[in-house]
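Encode chain A's predicted structure.
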Amino acid sequence: MLSKFCGYPLKTGVGFISITNLVLSVIFILYYLWERSVDYGYSHINNNWRKPLDDVFMDNITIIFMNVGSVSAFANFGLKQATLKNETHKIYLWLLFGYVQIVTMVLFEADVLCRNTMTDKNLIRVVLGFLIVDAILVYQLLVVQSFYKEEKLVEETSYARLRSEMITQQVDREDRQWENESHTIDS
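Encoded structure for chain A:
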């Protein structure tokens, strides 16, 4: 696991990741709102029966992508809260979304590479682009996973210390109570 994010503490790195991804999620949502409001350029000549079907399909696609953007924004907002308030349980959704995103990207990349025959020059560019995106996503996951493990360790250590202090206090109280009872019996 990692101990730093580009030379900065993990907490700072996770905050940067969450803010960056939150902004990108809002842009993603706004893009699909704008995209849906634009005419898709289908021919209006003799295709009147097809236009309503295309509209319904595109409405559904837009709703799906906007929901993905909303979940991403919610997960990134929770991740930012986790860095500010030390609430490790708010990292779970982001990690789940991140792993689903990686799997989806790999499947999409495999589909694109299998379906398209490109020249060698274009193929190298596409594969290089895919590798850069995958590397960024995997690095983000590693940073957030490392931050989660670090925070969870602090949380467990704090719990263990608090538990041992409470047990010590309880034993001290029982000892004092036993001493008081033994003094009253002796008197």
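The chain has a mean pLDDT of 81.
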